[in-house]
Each structure stands twice: as C-alpha cells, then as structure tokens.
Write a structure and sequence with these properties.
CATH superfamily of chain A: P-loop containing nucleotide triphosphate hydrolases
CATH topology of chain A: Rossmann fold
Order of helices and strands of chain B: HHHHHEEHHHHHH
CATH class of chain A: Alpha Beta
Low-confidence stretches of chain B: 1-6
Number of domains of chain B: 2
Radius of gyration of chain A: 20 Å
Shape of chain A: globular
Oligomer: heterodimer
Strand content of chain B: under 5%
Mean pLDDT of chain A: 90
Distance between the termini of chain B: 54 Å
Order of helices and strands of chain A: EEEHEEHEHHHEHEHEEHHHH
Largest sheet of chain A: 6 strands, mixed
Strand content of chain A: 15-25%
Helix content of chain B: 55-70%
C-alpha cells in the first residue's frame, strides 16, 4: 500500500463554546493518490474533520499528520496548507481577487513564489480545470460551478499533494455539480492528486474508491461503496440514504429475488436484470 | 435595479494616460492639487488648465465625461461664486445695484475659487477615469509601503480595499435578492416619505449585514487555508514598473509647478 498522505490517530475535537465533541476518536488513513469520500448528514462533524486536516483547527485529543508533518506544530502550518489544499462550500466566499487569474495567483503570492514563475503556473492550473478562457473575467460574472473550478485552480497552482473538498458541490445546481466532480476525478486520475471528498450526496460518494460514513462525530462505517451501501438499513439508521439502485436491489432481495450485492448504478442493475432473465 | 451600477467610473480605453504607472498618476494628482493651491492669481491657473487639458487629450476620455464629474458640485460652485461675488470687500466698484455693489477684487476672487474647485474635481476625475479601482489600490499600497516603518498597515489597507471591491457586486446581488424576497412578503420600499422609506430599509439591511459577517468568516477561513499570513514575504503577480512615459510625465509635472510659481511672481 502506498504511503499515507493524511493520517488521523484517535482524533477528537470539541468547540470551545460547546461541551460536546464534534469529532470523537476518529482514526483515518488516506494513501497517496486515493480518492476517498466522507459521507455524513448535517452536523455529523464532517466539516470539522476537514478543518482539522489542514490545521485550521487543532485536535483537542489525538494527532493529525499530513505528509508526515504534525498539524499541532506551528512551523508546519504553511507547508501543510500548501500540500493539502482545501476547497470550501460557498463559491462566493472563497474567491479573494476581482479577476480570475489574480485569484489563482493569491495562494502563490502568499507562499512567495517568484513573480516570473507565476503566469505559467496560473495558466497550467486554469487549463487543468478547463477555465483558461475565463482568466480575465470577474468572479461575479461566473456560474457557481465555474467559480468552484476557479477555487480548485487556486489550490492546484500551489502544487498540492492532496485536496480536501468540504461539500464543494452542495450549493451548486446539478450541472455545476457534475462539472466540478468530473474535473476533480480528472485531477485524481491524471495528476495523481489525493482527494478527500466530503459530501452528503450518495451519488458522488458511490463514485469514490472508499467511503467513510460519519455519524455524530464518529466514523461508523468504512469500505468500498459496494460494501458500505450493501447494508441499506444500517445506512438509513444514520439518516442517510443509499443510492436509488442499491435500495431497489435491497428491496428486490428482501422479496426473495436472487439479485447480487453491490449494485450502485442503473447500468449495473440493467445488466443484473438481463443476466437473471436468461 | 441594483445590478447595473458600475463600479467607479473607469473609462476602458487604451491610452498613454491609462498605461501610466498608478503610483505616478497618484503623485501627479497630489502635485496638481498643490499647484492649484499655489496658484496665487488668475494667470497662474493657465498652466494648470493647459496641463489638465493636455492630459485629458492624451487620455482619449471624452471631455463631456470629465465635465459630468462637476454636476454633483454645481450648487456648491454657484454658492461659492455668489458668496464671493457679493460679500468680499474691495475698492473698485464694477456694478452698483444700490443696496449692494460688486467690486473688482470680489469678482476676481469669485472666479478664482470656482476655478480652483472645477480644476480639483477635473484632475481627480481624470485619475479615476483612467485607472481601474483595483490598480489604484495597488498603486496606493506601493506608495504607502515605506510607511510600514512607522507601523502603518499599508498592505492590510490595500487588501481590505480590494476585498471590498470584490464583494460589492456580490453583496449588491444579494441585496437585490433580499429585496425581492421582502417585497414578496409585502414589504414596501418605494412609497412614503424619506423617513418611512429609510425605515423600510431595515428588513433589507439586517439580513444583508448578517450575511456579510458570515461571508467575512468564511473568507477569512479560506484565505488562511490558502496560506495567507499578512504582507510579510509575499510576492506579487503584477509588478509595477516605471516606463519612459512615466518619467516624461514627471518632467511635465516639474514644468507645471515651475510655471505656476513663475506666473504668480510675474503678475
């Protein structure tokens, strides 16, 4: 197995003004080049977990390591944030500059990249997310999906090893959601960037390699989407819903039909039904 | 209704004046203001007028636009002119109205004060017409950065200004949305007297403020996640460089000041 980029050991975190812990005793290891999802309802602690990973929050118990560096140590903070970038939920609230290319430059300026190197890195990052044509535009003239892709380019320009997406598609329309998700898939496949995809959309989680289900601050279930969504009743007890086809397969199985486990998509269901009809 | 507000009054064409370094343009404006106040007599205004006229010609900004900047000032202009005209004392009477008389000194000083105002406004309009706000912010940051020695937060100030510029359209859009939502619930923004209308704005402003604070929190988090830690050790995408035209304009400036001082002496 490849080396772990993100390693959480028995991490707990409690907000100062609240007594209860938002994250409870979570251990998690994300290997290099992986595409993992964290799935959970609102208030399950998944956003808090995201902010623990790049040192925006420091764990009250346990340790978080990114590329072998502990987030609790001050001198690591900026290197960790460069290597594990983060894209947030609201597309409007994370762009800083009035022009797209300058926003992409923002991170580069912060880490002190020489002026001469910047244009090439900006161009590369924008073309990686398919936004090169919009380099001179003002952010408020873009659609939600386009803004999120600019935000990704901003992180990408800093040459990160991993990117954490904190519900980055939650405020987008279905078209924008698809646009952003497929851009991220491409980055994972072509650039080998490790992705931690935090979401409450089952359809997206079903497309990741591994799914970690969070409920009330704990990781209650981990595995491939097939494994995780196989137990429809358990998933529903976490106030989540399995993808429609997994639910259909489950319902058919409980009626006594010999449908195989691990069906996620309409295509898989189609083939399974065809196979059974033969 | 709120959507078509254009920010600032930048006139987007490419010209010599547009291409000047923003720092130089700010210096030019400051010097121009000094020159306007130095001008001790009417003759000394001639070089200033020539300078502004020449600059506006080079900028290819229509002269009408420059004059438009004077419109909000028209009452103050008339007021200054009339006050000076009637209430200043002098010896030579130009026109006797019986109850009041206009003196020569008063006329000169009325013309001088109004001219001063007009030129001030035209000079600064020329700067904002030829420089996008964000470039202006940049220039200001660079000009003020030596003051860091006395702990003046030049970088922070420029960052705040540019974030404000970035969020004005976003907040306008949001205000528009809230306004429609409140109108749908029976809020009335358009009728009543001034006080009633101001009061009607409260249900618009409260949610807008709440959301602005939430946005500020989000943005701060996102900036930190992108390694923002103040101006220290920061590099820049756009680097300002003075070109030949910038140096020539400084010569023109020196000539202007000299001309203003000379005209003041000769008269």
């Amino acid at each position: 197995m490849a080396q772990a980029i993100i390693e959480l050991k028995n991490v707990s975190y409690a907000y100062e003004d609240e007594g209860t812990e938002a994250v409870k005793n979570v251990s998690l290891s994300i290997p290099q080049g992986a595409f993992h999802a964290i799935l959970g309802q609102n208030g399950s602690g998944k956003s808090t977990l995201a902010k623990l990973i790049n040192g925006l929050y420091l764990p009250t118990k346990g340790s978080v390591q990114v590329c072998g560096m502990d987030t609790a140590e001050d001198e690591n903070t900026w290197e960790i944030r460069r290597r594990a970038g983060m894209v947030f939920q609201n597309p409007d609230n994370q762009l800083v500059a009035t022009v797209v290319e300058e926003d992409v430059a923002f991170g580069l300026e912060n880490i002190g990249v020489p002026t001469g190197e910047m244009p090439a890195r900006i161009e590369q990052a924008l073309s990686d997310v398919g936004m090169l044509d919009f380099a001179k535009r003002a952010p408020h003239t873009l659609s939600g999906g386009q803004k999120q892709r600019v935000a990704i380019a901003g992180v990408l320009a800093m040459a990160p090893e991993a990117i954490i997406f904190d519900e980055s598609t939650a405020m987008l329309d279905p078209k924008g959601r698809k646009e952003v998700f497929s851009a991220v898939q491409r980055l994972n496949e072509e650039k080998g960037i490790t992705v931690l995809w935090i979401t409450h959309f089952m359809e997206e989680a079903a497309l990741c390699q591994q799914v970690h289900v969070m409920h009330e601050g704990e990781i209650v279930l981990s595995g491939t989407p097939q494994e995780v969504f196989a137990d429809v009743e358990r998933i529903q007890s976490y106030r989540l819903d399995a993808p429609p086809m997994a639910r259909l397969a489950h319902a058919l199985r409980s009626q006594g039909m010999p449908i195989r486990e691990g069906i996620m998509t309409i295509r898989e269901m189609q083939e399974e039904v065809k196979r059974l009809c033969k | 209704m709120l959507k078509n507000i254009t920010l600032g009054q930048y006139y987007p064409v490419d010209s010599l004046v547009h291409r000047l370094d923003p720092r130089i343009k700010i210096i030019l404006l400051i010097a121009l203001i000094v020159a306007i106040f130095l001008a001790g007599n009417l003759l000394a205004f001639v070089p200033v007028m020539l300078f502004i006229g020449f600059a506006s010609m080079l900028s290819s900004v229509p002269f009408k636009l420059l004059l438009k900047g004077l419109r909000p000032l028209r009452f103050i202009l008339i007021f200054t002119f009339v006050l000076n005209l009637f209430f200043l004392q002098g010896e030579e009477i130009l026109l006797d109205l019986g109850f009041m008389s206009i003196k020569k000194e008063a006329l000169i000083s009325a013309v001088r004060f109004s001219l001063r105002l007009v030129l001030l406004v035209m000079g600064s309009s020329l700067l904002t017409l030829t420089t996008p706000p964000i470039v202006l912010t940049d220039g200001l940051e660079r000009l003020l950065s030596p003051l860091r020695v006395i702990h003046f937060p030049a970088h922070e100030m420029a960052m705040m200004m540019s974030i404000a510029l970035r969020f004005i359209p976003t907040l306008l859009e949001e205000a528009d949305k809230i306004m429609k939502a409140q109108t749908a619930r029976g809020a009335d923004f358009e009728s009543g007297n001034l006080i009633q209308r101001a009061r009607a704005m409260v249900p618009l402003l409260v949610p807008l403020f709440v959301s602005a604070f939430r946005r500020a929190g989000d943005l701060a988090m996102a900036m930190e996640a992108r390694c923002y830690h103040g101006g220290e050790g920061r590099t820049r995408l756009r680097v300002l460089k003075c070109k030949a035209a910038d140096f020539y304009s400084l010569f023109a400036l020196a000539a202007l000041i000299a001309a203003v001082v000379l005209c003041g002496k000769v008269y």
